[in-house]
Amino acid sequence: MKKGIVVVCTLALVLALGGMAFAENVIKIGAIYPFTGPMAGTAQMLKDGVEMAVDIINNKYDFDFLFADTEGLPNLGGAKIEIIWADSAGDPKTGMSEAERLITSEGVVALIGCYQSSVTKTASQVAERYGIPFVNGDSSSPQLTERNFKWFFRTDPHDGLYARQQFEHLIELEKQTGESLRRLAIVYENTEFGSQVARAQEALAKEYGFQVVEKLAYTTGATSLNSEVTRLMASKPDVVLMAAYISDQILFTKTFKTMRFAPKVWHNTAAPGEPDFLKSVGDDGNYLFLRQGFCADQVVNKPVIGQILEEFRNKFGQEMLADAVRSFHAPIVLADAINRAGSTDPEAIRQALLETDIPGDYCLSPWEGIKFDPETGQNIHSQYIICQIQDQDFYTVFPSEFATREPVFPFPSWDDR
Amino acid sequence: MPKISRKTVVTVLLYVGAVVIAPLFSKAPFYRHVLIMVGLYGLLGVAWNIMGGYTGLYSFGQSAFFGIGAYTSTMMLVKAGVSPWIGMLCGGILAAIVAAGVAYPTSRLRGPYFTIASQAFARTFQILMTNWDYVEGAIGIPLPLMPDTWRFMQFKDKIPYHIIIFGLLGIAILVCYYIANSRTGYYFRAIRDSEQVASALGINTVRQRIIAAMLSAFFTAIAGTFYAQYVLYIDPESVTHHALSIEIVMVAAVGGAGTIWGPVLGAAILMPISQYARAALGGAGRGIDLIIYGVIIMVIALVRPTGILGFFQRERTIEGEGGDDVDTTITAGTGSDDAVRGALGQS
């Protein structure tokens, strides 16, 4: 009897495997995201971003955007894009095997994903071996586009680029205010993301003539950061450059406040942009600088953003955040390339990807467009924007052509708020 | 050396036959990947079994040895262009040395205290690797892509990997079989059943525990090198993470700890379930595959707390009560009397 239960469970699985539907005239694209594990929430946002893009491609919308006025891909007889989802569980080995399965068993013509850079590394290796285009919009490790892969393309900027923009911003702040911001403290969480950012920052500090007075690695998930902040205060930095995950970012903010630590500039990665941050810290989150791939205030520069955000809100019942914007571009780029290629032959798609030239009007992110470097596969127009939190909302302050508000400088002391 | 019985010959032939036939059922790389995972986790389970199953040292720190294997061969390959075959051997030896270094100071710890110490060691090791710049820290190391070669153990096709991992697994099983039937094996089981009694009988328990740890670490590290060559990218998160240690214990426990084929059976059952469940249901993004996986493990644990192989073992022992020759490959080491008698050389 009990053995029977095991047998039935196993049978059910086998049947579920065989029951996959097959539809005609669809172009299958594989998408690998960490749907289980600690990044599951982010993966859902990334998935919504991809689905929004696919929805625009496959259906008619009355705004000015790529594929908005057609159903499916016009050059392929209106073929629709179908996404085959796969779960990486955030594990490079699983990402690899899922990429392989999508290519060989599901017959996808291209791959997108995988958020965590380590998973993107192994999954794109598989794509490279099989000769299948891989378009990534959501991994930021500089290494990814330093491998000279033929089949790998990235729409988003990477961490190296981000650090450079950060220094350009600091220099501009110095010019505007006449204050010296040369003493830097670099604080980073010690996994791959934080390490990459810190490494780039340290190199650039040397290049631009800044002095790193403290370089502090911490382990994510700490329950107290008092000793870290004490060390930071002792080094008397003008600027704190921080690469933290959301939970630590909240704790750092609270600890800074308790210990009354207010450097002139507090520069961060994207963590304060996540919805939980302002919910947890409220007004204490004001005046932080952060990097963003996207900021909703950019709607003043591109009205179509507002319409897409509106559609997203209606469809998924929540705001379209930066992560969804990141994953949104990849399917658009692929649909555009497949449409121009007029075929689903991988080599034809790759050639079309190399000739991609999407104008900035069709990017949600503040880019001049999407055009790939033929050597590295990196989008040469990609860049971040730097936002500041003011009145518990995000405003672009750098680069100046996108700025919607003047930055508040210096970071006000905790007692004067 | 035990006599080579007909049963042994048949077992070897069956194993080789199964390994050769298995990949022929489907050409799909995913299917063959699942088989390779069975081999990899089977090897890890067999290695854990030497410590956990035979000697009663429930190690939850195998990920450290796995990491040593993966990092040693990869660093030798990346920095000096040394073939991973040599790196594999070096990694195994290095892991064995480290294991000896850990086993000695922990030799007085028993039961859960040893388990805690092993886990603490592995976690420390992960933090070390994450912060060590020479091995690229948290960023990890991508292995250089090469054309198919046996010398550098890199292939586009799955079959060579299949041959390598099941070859390694075969060697590990043979070693395990040899040990289980040797005096060392009886010492191990005597320690598992009662360390005090074993010690009172004159067994040098510290020494035997160190030997068990070294053997286990050696094979775990070899699996680590294989992983690095197969996935072609390693970072502390994927090769030294404590979740890996738990997966290894699970494979052995579900299949049947303390038996030669138990860990292999455990891998052969758990890997296809987890992989196919994820492939079929993982894309929905609700973790249903993990729920199914968890339920199956709970069912097995409830129905057969001693592992799936224990199912057959119990039946066979009952059948064999009439004084039949009990299959040593399966029931070796049940009952402390047996072990102690063996240790005294009276059996």
Summarize the biggest pleated sheet of chain A: 7 strands, mixed
The protein's oligomeric status is heterodimer
CATH structural class of the largest domain in chain A: Alpha Beta
Note the total helix count of chain B. 16
Shape of chain A: globular
Uncertain parts of chain B: 314-347
Q: Between the first and last Cα atoms of chain A, what is the distance in angstroms?
A: 69 Å
Largest interface: A-B, 51 and 45 residues
Order of helices and strands of chain B: HHHHHEHHHHEHHHHHHH
What Rg of chain A do the Cα atoms give? Answer: 22 Å
Biggest sheet overview of chain B: 2 strands, antiparallel
| Helix content percent band of chain A | 40-55%
Annotated CATH architecture of the largest domain in chain A: 3-Layer(aba) Sandwich
Strand line-up across the major sheet of chain A: 7-6-8-9-10-13-14
The CATH superfamily of the largest domain in chain A is known as Response regulator
* Domains of chain A, number: 2
Radius of gyration of chain B: 20 Å
- What structural class do the secondary elements of chain A suggest? alpha/beta
Instruction: State the total count of DSSP E strands of chain A.
Output: 14
Shape of chain B: globular
Unreliable sequence segments of chain A: 15-23
Outline the structure in words:
The complex is a heterodimer of chains A (417) and B (347). In chain A, 41% of the residues lie in helices and 17% in strands. Chain A is an alpha/beta fold. Chain A folds into 2 domains: 207 residues, 3-Layer(aba) Sandwich (Rossmann fold); 165 residues, Rossmann fold, CATH 3.40.50. A 7-stranded mixed beta sheet of chain A has the order 7-6-8-9-10-13-14, sandwiched between helices. Chain A has a 5-stranded parallel beta sheet with strand order 2-1-3-4-5, with helices on both faces. Chain A has a two-stranded antiparallel ribbon with strand order 11-12. In chain A, helix 4 links the parallel strand 3 and strand 4. In chain A, helix 5 crosses helix 6. Chain A starts with a helix and ends in a 19-residue tail after the last strand. Chain B is mostly helical and 347 residues long. Chain B has a domain of 214 residues. Helix content of chain B is 71%, strand content 1%. Chain B is built from 16 helices and 2 strands. Chain B has a two-stranded antiparallel ribbon. Chain B is globular and about 55 Å long. Chain B starts with 5 loop residues before the first helix and ends with a helix. The C terminus of chain B is likely disordered. At the A-B interface, helix 1, helix 2, strand 2, helix 3 and helix 4 of A face helix 2, helix 5, helix 12 and helix 13 of B.
